[in-house]
Specification:
This protein is α+β, with helices and mostly antiparallel strands and 480 residues long. It has helices spanning 12-24, 66-73, 114-118, 124-131, 147-155, 157-172, 181-184, 187-195, 198-209, 233-242, 288-294, 300-307, 351-354, 383-398, 423-434, 452-479, and strands spanning 4-8, 29-33, 45-48, 51-54, 60-61, 80-82, 91-94, 97-100, 105-106, 109-110, 225-228, 248-249, 254-259, 265-269, 276-279, 281-284, 311-322, 334-336, 347-349, 363-371, 406-417, 440-442. It starts with a strand and ends with a helix. Residues 8-14, 33-36, 41-43, 56-60, 253-254, 285-287, 290, 314, 316, 412, 415-416, 444-445, 450-452, 455 line the site of flavin-adenine dinucleotide (FAD).
């Protein structure tokens, strides 16, 4: 009898786990249980009226090679494309106007001095305070703190309010006064501890890089991002197509995972007739709150800890305009909005300027993000009003003379896990408890990385853990 592994959740994490399990342990029977009728989870590419619209992730960072490796193993190497070399950079709203984010300012800290000294985004006092970072002693306590506390302590409130909050808000749709610095940007507290100052660390890195070209884009290192020509669903579809026939079970929401003898599991499906499925091992790749309720009677500690991970929601409005009806130069990839500006959107990405083949010629496709942890109340508005609100903001900020020729809205409800202060301890606690359940693995965006590469990595690691646990238990049976 082939041993069976059940994977719960058909987002990128569950699909990557299933695919990798077939790679490393082809003798196992893989069953993927997805609650809805569609695979991909939050990732969804739609092609409509000549536009390629992404509902969630529209690209991934390549500093970790896992996503590129996976694409290559799936035969998608030729589909990978980088960002447009023109326009790499972002803007921030400052007193109602769009200003370029200083070159070399990467999410949290400046890596170049001159662009920060000359920017109009910070006042002279704000610049002076940011420069004092060089002399501020490192923190003595090594416990976690919020991203806001970290940045205000090192660079001052103004740099936090005007640059870091909107950039981080754009990435995590989060409240930086609750976001854990250790879980989201561990590199920066490490730099503080090693070099005493982030500016000192950055200057040293620049010196060591020698003649290497300094980072020119502001906001993010756009040269390190990639996507797939046909959109992110190309990856989730290729993963699904790589699985053996009959492995995927759509419309199969799981409501409980119950331990049986010898490390085996009974999986209860929440379908009308309450079906049960037996498995030798389980990988849970659903959002943490769902995993928490599935495991409520199996392991109270894991369930309660997962239940503490909060989620935020956002609305993604896609709008397209004729290029000649937009007065703004659109010479970057988009903009972010500080909460201090009291506007109703979080950020806007110029999708068709960032990547090719996203819109017909002469048209520009933009994605506007609304809501998040700090403005979630806006998502109570009717869909049509949310779209109108995004239109109003773009019309004003980009000086657009005519209404959009294309509109679309995706609601991403409870879709973004929030890594609040103490997140690393929560994840460690869950991982410690998992040691007593060798045939159970957890994976997904709620644990050690919200980005696509982090999700793939956690899915693949879960697959390896389960393959090893089953191989070890088979050895024990053979020897006894
Ligand atoms: C708006 C937005 C923009 C983003 N942009 C980027 C980006 O540009 N780059 C980047 O790297 N990342 C980005 N991300 C993050 C990234 O897309 C996600 O973290 C990642 O896709 C999550 O994948 P997942 O498989 O872990 O979870 P999900 O995609 O949430 O999939 C979980 C799956 O589990 C299923 N499920 C839930 N409960 C059950 C149950 N009881 N039984 C069975 N199945 C169940 C769900 O239906 C779902 O299909 C973005 C996310 C959002 C929301």
């Amino acid at each position: 009898m082939r041993q069976r592994v059940a994977i719960i959740g058909g987002g990128i994490t569950g699909l990557a786990a299933a695919h990798h399990l077939c790679e490393v342990a082809p003798q196992l029977d893989v069953v993927l249980l997805e609650a809805t009728s569609r695979l991909g989870g939050v990732i969804q590419t739609t092609k409509k009226d000549g536009f390629l619209v992404e509902s969630a992730a529209d690209n991934f960072i390549t500093t970790s090679p896992v996503a590129i490796n996976l694409c290559q193993r799936l035969g998608l190497g030729d589909e990978l494309i980088g960002t447009n070399p023109q326009g790499r950079g972002a803007m921030v709203v400052c007193k109602g106007k769009l200003e370029p984010i200083p070159a070399g300012f990467l999410v949290m800290a400046p890596s170049r001095i001159w662009p920060i000294l000359t920017t109009r985004i910070l006042s002279s006092v704000g610049k002076l305070r940011a420069g004092l970072e060089y002399f501020i002693p490192k923190r003595k306590q090594l416990d976690d703190e919020s991203l806001k506390a970290f940045v205000c302590r090192r660079f001052g409130y103004e740099m936090f309010e005007r640059l870091v909050q909107p950039l981080v808000g754009g990435i995590y749709t989060a409240d930086p006064s609750r976001l854990s610095i250790a879980a989201t940007m561990p590199r920066f507290p490490q730099m503080e501890q090693q070099h005493g100052s982030l500016l000192r660390a950055m200057m040293r890195q620049r010196r060591e890089a020698g003649q290497a070209k300094p980072e020119n884009s502001g906001g993010a290192r756009y040269s390190q991002f990639m996507t797939l020509r046909g959109g992110m669903s190309t990856l989730t579809s290729a993963l699904a197509n790589s699985l053996p026939a009959g492995a995927i079970h759509r419309n199969s929401p799981v409501c409980a995972i119950v331990p049986e003898e010898q490390g085996r599991w009974s999986i209860r499906l929440a379908k009308g007739n309450q079906q049960w499925l037996d498995a030798d091992a389980v990988i849970v790749a659903s959002p943490a709150n769902h995993a928490a309720s599935m495991l409520a009677s199996t392991d109270k500690s894991i369930s309660e800890t997962l239940g503490q991970i909060e989620y935020a929601s956002c609305g993604v409005v896609s709008l397209a305009y004729r290029r000649d009806q937009i007065k703004h130069k659109l010479n970057t990839f988009g903009f972010v909005v500080p909460l201090a500006e009291h506007r109703l959107i979080l950020s806007c990405s110029f999708s068709s300027l960032k990547y090719p083949d996203r819109a017909p010629d002469e048209l520009v496709l933009m994605r506007v993000f609304i809501g998040g942890a700090c403005q979630g109340g806006l998502l109570q508005l009717p869909r049509e009003q949310l779209i109108q609100l995004a239109e109003r903001e773009l019309t004003e900020l980009l000086d657009i003379s005519q209404p959009p020729v294309f509109r679309d809205l995706t609601m991403q409800l409870q879709a973004m896990p929030q890594y609040h202060v103490g997140h690393c301890e929560r994840v460690e606690l869950v991982e410690k408890r998992l040691a007593s359940h060798p045939t159970l693995a957890l994976a997904g965006s709620a644990l050690r990385g919200v980005g696509v590469p982090g999700c793939i990595e956690s899915g693949e690691k879960a697959a390896e853990r389960i393959a090893n646990a089953l191989a070890a238990s088979n050895c024990e049976v053979c020897h006894s």
